[in-house]
Specification:
mainly alpha; Arc Repressor Mutant, subunit A; Tetracycline Repressor, domain 2; 10 helices; elongated
């Protein structure tokens, strides 16, 4: 497999086509249901040609997950200790919701990996992701101790944000089946609801 730095323009284009096709296949069928033949067809390449770029299905999947984890952690990293606590958390909620709008396949790829027991990303979950959640939970706890947020357990608050935002990607068919929205208008409705919901939940009482 040629390294990214050594790839020609055509090789870079073919690599991108493979990853795009693989994202469709993995996010729909999961790791076990995906095959190199399906990915090659989706990319418009022969299987031998695909194997020139990636030696295995696992290598393609690993490449997708590596990029996904980087993007997935960024919205939480942006929680700013110098900002207003409620504004910062609501902004995080809206960033996560926007990711569900823009990257539904990536969200389902992640969900499929988790449902299988996270065999390929458990190191990242127990490493970088856990460390980041602990860091931002400590920040939320500081805000709470200063009376700037309601006393809600920080890690479960973060879990709830993941659940209420990623739902719109992972369960898109169910959401659309119930709401029957025109286009993506329901994301704007969800943004209004989640903003009001979290502002209410996070505002200190009394």
């Amino acid at each position: 497999m040629p390294t990214p730095a050594s790839q020609t323009r055509i090789q870079k284009e073919n690599t991108a086509r493979i990853l795009e096709a693989a994202l469709d296949v993995f996010s729909t069928l999961g790791y076990r249901g995906a095959t190199l033949d399906r990915i090659a067809r989706g990319a418009g390449l022969s299987k031998p040609n695909l194997l020139y770029y990636f030696p295995s299905k696992e290598a393609i999947h690993a490449s997708l997950l590596a990029g996904l984890m980087t993007n997935w952690l960024d919205p939480l990293r942006r929680l700013d200790s110098d900002g207003d606590p409620i504004d910062e958390i609501v902004a995080y909620v809206l960033r996560k919701l926007e990711m569900s709008r823009l990257y539904p396949r990536e969200s389902r790829l992640f969900a499929n990996e988790i449902l299988q027991g996270a065999p390929r990303i458990m190191d990242e979950i127990e490493g970088d992701l856990r460390a980041l959640v602990e860091e931002k939970s400590a920040l939320i706890a500081q805000w709470q101790a200063a009376g700037r947020l309601a006393p809600i357990e920080p890690r479960h608050l973060i879990f709830s944000i993941w659940a209420t935002t990623q739902h719109y990607a992972d369960f898109d068919v169910q959401v659309r089946g119930i709401l029957r929205p025109q286009g993506d208008g329901h994301f704007d409705e969800a943004a209004d609801f989640l903003t009001a919901f979290y502002r209410s939940a996070l505002t200190p009482r009394g």
